[in-house]
Each structure stands twice: as structure tokens, then as C-alpha cells.
Specification:
The structure holds 2 protein chains of 2 kinds. Helix content of chain A is 65%, strand content 0%. Chain A is mostly helical. Chain A folds into 2 domains: 57 residues, no CATH class; 84 residues, Winged helix-like DNA-binding domain superfamily/Winged helix DNA-binding domain (Arc Repressor Mutant, subunit A, Orthogonal Bundle), CATH 1.10.10.10. Classes of the chains: A mainly alpha, B alpha+beta.
């Protein structure tokens, strides 16, 4: 659970705050869990939702999307992709955390937590095309960072 | 190695699905503290409102109770009135009388002049025994109407007089000397008011001494604002405005104090006109980023706040982080119609319906601009100067003395006129529910 919190917050203090609040929520709402076997998945969802809310409350600074330069799925064909397996999760996490806020969030939500573009768009109060655009940029930025590390 | 962009997603998913860093220790303690803090905040909000109502009620009772104590004290200090000359020992300006605000009847008695003596009537009064006090009524009636003074010396043995006789005397006093044009009233009537008996007229509680009364009241209400988009103005309002306000605005209190002059039309109905001070307080707590509206001004008219229709949304705007209390203060002129119905000797059902004109004179705090969700200072620029509102209340009234009443009513209030200026795209009306404490003093 702490991993979820770390991914959605830029520093460990925020992550710890989310973790604390998350456990309070879990204790308060545990009666609503009908299938004990799904405890882990249910808890993950609680922590992710809380982390997203926390981010929404606390992140600052404008997020502008340049619609004219929006990349499409076709633009994402790259010659070489990076192999993340050779890196430690903490290291990759630090690269993700260096991404702009909106890119980090969308990458986390889509790539790791499996939310759909529609869900992400609803959460960010934006359009699906915008979230796709942000995701493309996030992937591109992450690849560039990995590339620069490799060189 | 796969070269699809999904690869990086899959790698990330695989890496972080099982990623569980070491949990910082002792966070449970902090969590417990955090939880307690949150609960504490909620409890404070609830109890502060309850405390305000209780405080008001207790203050009212404390303010009025000492008078009863005084009456008892006075009576203890003069236990053996039998041995004194009643008419001479109690003078019109006696401290015992002037200090006792409950004994308004006495003041009235003292203000009236004793003009002359009539020996024959005095003799008549001296004749009857305690057991025949009832017969005094007729005698004294005849005295009062003929504007003559009499002496009650030795007429009544206070110590031995049965309670019901004293009460009946009071009845007799009230029914014969309440607000009529009497020139001569015996000063010794003041004595009856000092007897160790709580003075209540056996008349029905709602029967006024005169048709006028003065009332002060205090309302402690919980308030909130209701928001609605003006008809045909949907395009002027940000798509998430209503939800943002629902999430970010919390009910607080709406204290209100007022004084009014009441006029009783008959024993049940009254009208009143007053002056009051009303305040509504709501808490705003916003922390979000939302999409930026795109509007076009050409060919369209701006609404009262200078906004044009929205045609789309672009990206995310600035972070809106604000926590504060919005306070709106108003001077109000309430006009009311009320109805009261006696349940028994002391209690009455009491209800009132009123409309009031509220003049806004101060406003502090911020709210969301309904067009772009930016923070907006509240004040005369966006609010109307005058607002009409209505109030409905019902409860019970307790009779403290012959002319004083203390009441408690449940009330609900709502604004007929929206706060925002005419032609604004949002119609926002305040409403509140709560308790009213009021004190009424019937005038002579």
C-alpha cells in the first residue's frame, strides 16, 4: 500500500500522510467489504482513490495542454524502447516523480493501476483526448530519461 | 524486447504491482491522532451551536428569575403585617416596590394619586373579617369609580389569610384596576404584591393587559445556501459549479436578534413590527483544479457579473485552494402576524409568520465565480442591497408573571430574493432552521 502512496506523491512525507489516512479509511469502511478474499484489491483501490484525492487537493500550478501538438497512437511507434527490468523500482520511481505532475498522474493511473482514459478524464475534469495526449508525453519523457541514463 | 509503447506500460505495471517499500514505523499513532482530530472538529461545530441556544435560554431565565427571589425576600422581611398600618407603612415610592420589576402593577398603583378620604367607606372596609374578603370587591369598586381614597388598616390578616383568598384578591385587583382610568387606588394594594405568593392572575394567559407589548428575541439557526441556474442561463455557468459548491460549502450558523412592538388584535392574534440584526455564516473549503471555460462575447450579452456564454473547456486552470467563512450581515425589518392559544394557566402555543426586508450592510469572505470557478470576493458588487425573506415559527410560551412571557419556538427561514444581483446566471437563496428564544413584556 505504501507503494501506491509513493507513486502518487512526490515525497515520502506526503506518502506517509496518505498511508495514515488510508488505514483510517480502511478501518472505518472495513464492514463494507463483502468478500474477505478481495481484501488486498479492495485496499489497493481505497489507497489509490485516496492518493488521487490527496493529489487533487494539494497539487498546484497550471496544467496546460497544447492541443495542436497532441500526439496520437501512431506517433508512438519508436525504434527502440527501453528495458526497465535492469533498474530498481526505486530508481524508476524517482524518474517518474521527475515528470510533470499531470504526466506522472496519468502514467500511474493508466499504465500501472489500469484506469481507463475515460476514468482519468473524469477525474481530471478533462477530455479523453487530453489524457491520451498527456500519456503520450509521459511515455516519451520517461523514455528520454532512461535513454539519457543509458548513455 | 518489444518495441510497442505498451511495453513500457507493461514493464511499469509488472515492476510496481509487487513493489512494496518498507512502511515507516509508528504511523499508527499518528493515524490515531489524526482521526481524533477530525472527530474533534466535527464535535466542536455541533456543540458550539447547541451551546449558543442553551446559553441564550439560560441567560434569559437568569435575567428574569431574581425578581421572584426578591418577592420572596420582601415577604420574609415583613412577616407580621397584621400589626402595622398597611396604608401608612407602604408609601408610593417605597424601595420594595420600585426595585421589583415584576410588580409592574404596583408601580402603576403607586403612580396614581390618593386624593381624598371618605370616612364612611373606610368604616365599611374595616368592618368585614378575613373570611369575607370577597365582599371587599364590591366596596372597593364603588370607591374607585367614585375617585375616593379608603384605608385598609386591619382589614386583612396577611398571615392567616388563606392562599386562595389572596389569589382571588389579586384577581380582583387586576380585573378592577388594570389600565382603566382610575384616579384613586389605595396605596395599600402594594402590600398584596409582597405576599409570599407567586403572583399570577387567574385570567387566561393570553389575555393582554393592554393591546401593546414589547418583544425581544434571538434566533440560533443552522444555515445553508441553495443554488440554482437561472432559466436560459445554463451556458453562462461552469459545468462543475453546482457540484463544486455542494462539495466546498458547509452549513454554519445564522444568529439573529430582534426587537419588536406587538399589537394584540384580540386574545389570540397579534401583529408586530420590529428591527433586527441578522447574520448568515457559511464555511467555504475549496481545493481543486478544474477545466478552463472558453466563452465568446461577440453577439452575446453579459450577465449581471459580466460573464458570457461558455462554448467549451480547455485543460486545467489554476489550483483553487481556499478555506474561510463567508459572513453576510443585514439589518432587517420584520413584519409579523402571530397566533397564540392558551393550553393552561401558564403555557400557550405560540406561532408566528413574518416577512422581513433585509438590508445588506456588510459582507466578508469569498465564494466561487460561477463562470470560471475562480475565487470571488463577496460584497455589494455581486450581491443585492435589499433582500426579502420569510420566517415561520411555532413553539410554546411560558407565562412568567402577569405581563411577562418567555417563549421557545422552532423556526425556519428562507430568502424570497436571491443574494446575487438581478440578471445573474445563478440564483442563490439562503435558508435556515433553528430555535428562537423570545421574551415578551405586555405594556400598560
Amino acid at each position: 500500500m505504501y507503494g501506491h502512496c509513493l507513486r502518487y506523491s512526490k515525497n515520502t512525507e506526503d506518502a506517509q500522510d496518505i498511508l495514515q489516512e488510508g488505514f483510517i479509511k480502511v478501518f472505518e469502511k472495513i464492514h463494507s467489504l463483502k468478500e474477505p478474499s478481495q481484501l488486498e484489491g479492495w485496499m489497493s483501490r481505497v489507497f489509490i482513490n485516496l492518493a488521487l484525492s490527496y493529489w487533487r487537493k494539494n497539487h498546484s500550478g497550471p496544467t496546460f495542454v497544447d492541443i495542436e501538438n497532441t500526439e496520437t497512437a501512431d506517433d508512438l511507434n519508436v525504434e527502440e524502447d527501453s528495458n526497465l527490468q535492469s533498474y530498481q523500482p526505486e530508481e524508476v520511481l524517482s524518474w517518474i516523480n521527475e515528470l510533470p505532475d499531470n504526466q506522472r498522474m496519468v502514467l500511474n493511473m493508466f499504465a500501472i493501476d489500469g484506469l481507463s482514459h475515460q476514468e482519468i478524464a473524469n477525474f481530471l475534469n478533462t477530455t479523453v483526448s487530453n489524457t491520451k495526449s498527456i500519456l503520450s508525453r509521459a511515455r516519451k519523457s520517461l523514455r528520454e530519461r532512461i535513454k539519457s541514463k543509458n548513455q | 524486447m518489444e518495441k510497442s509503447p505498451l511495453n513500457i506500460d507493461q514493464q511499469l505495471k509488472g515492476m510496481f504491482e509487487t513493489f512494496e517499500p518498507a512502511v515507516p514505523f509508528q504511523f499508527e499513532k499518528v493515524a490515531a491522532g489524526l482521526d481524533a482530530k477530525k472527530r474533534g472538529r466535527r464535535i466542536i461545530m455541533l456543540w458550539s451551536s447547541v451551546a449558543a441556544v442553551v446559553f441564550t435560554a439560560v441567560s434569559g431565565i437568569i435575567f428574569l428569575r431574581p425578581d421572584t427571589a426578591k418577592v420572596n425576600e420582601i415577604s420574609k422581611n415583613q412577616p407580621n403585617i397584621e400589626q402595622s398600618e398597611i396604608s401608612s407603612s407602604i408609601k408610593p415610592n417605597d424601595n420594595l416596590a420600585s426595585n421589583d420589576s415584576r410588580l409592574v402593577e404596583k408601580n402603576q398603583v403607586n403612580e396614581l394619586k390618593v386624593t381624598e378620604e371618605t370616612n364612611s367607606i373606610s368604616e365599611e372596609l374595616n368592618k368585614p373579617q378575613v373570611g369575607t374578603v370577597y365582599s371587599l370587591g364590591g366596596n372597593i369598586n364603588s370607591i374607585s369609580t367614585s375617585s375616593r381614597q379608603y384605608s385598609l388598616s386591619n382589614a386583612i390578616d396577611a398571615e392567616n389569610t388563606p392562599l386562595e383568598v389572596v389569589e382571588n384578591l389579586n384577581e380582583w385587583v387586576y380585573s378592577d384596576f388594570s389600565g382603566k382610568s382610575i384616579e384613586t387606588i389605595p396605596t395599600s394594594f402594594g402590600y398584596f404584591l409582597q405576599l409570599p405568593v407567586r403572583i399570577h392572575s387567574p385570567q387566561k394567559p393570553n389575555q393582554p393587559l393592554s393591546s401593546w407589548a414589547f418583544e425581544v428575541g434571538y434566533d440560533q439557526n443552522q444555515t445553508a445556501m441553495a443554488y440554482q441556474i437561472s432559466s436560459g442561463r445554463e451556458k453562462y455557468v461552469h459545468k462543475n459549479y453546482i457540484n463544486r459548491m455542494k462539495e466546498g460549502e458547509f452549513a454554519l450558523n445564522a444568529p439573529q436578534i430582534q426587537a419588536a412592538l406587538k399589537r394584540y388584535i384580540n386574545k389570540n392574534w397579534f401583529v408586530s413590527l420590529g428591527l433586527g440584526f441578522a447574520q448568515t455564516r457559511t464555511m467555504q473549503r475549496f481545493n481543486f483544479r478544474d477545466s478552463i471555460p472558453v466563452s465568446v462575447s461577440q453577439g452575446f450579452e453579459a450577465d449581471a457579473l459580466g460573464n458570457f456564454p461558455i462554448f467549451g473547456y480547455l485543460g486545467l486552470g489554476q489550483q483553487i485552494a481556499y478555506e474561510g467563512i463567508q459572513t453576510v450581515q443585514m439589518l432587517s425589518v420584520p413584519i409579523s402576524v402571530g397566533y397564540q392559544y392558551p393550553i393552561n394557566r401558564f403555557w400557550s402555543f405560540s406561532s408566528e409568520i413574518s416577512t422581513r426586508y433585509n438590508r445588506l450592510f456588510a459582507s466578508q469572505g469569498k465564494t466561487l465565480n460561477y463562470h470560471d470557478l475562480s475565487l470571488l470576493e463577496t460584497g455589494n458588487e455581486i450581491y443585492r442591497a435589499g433582500i426579502w425573506s420569510g420566517r415561520l415559527s411555532a413553539g410554546a410560551e411560558y407565562r412568567l408573571s402577569r405581563n411577562q412571557y418567555l417563549g421557545l419556538r422552532l423556526n425556519t427561514q428562507g430568502a424570497f430574493t436571491p443574494f446575487y444581483k438581478k440578471d445573474a446566471s445563478i440564483v442563490n437563496r439562503g435558508w435556515s432552521v433553528g430555535m428562537s428564544v423570545f421574551y415578551t413584556m405586555k405594556l400598560f
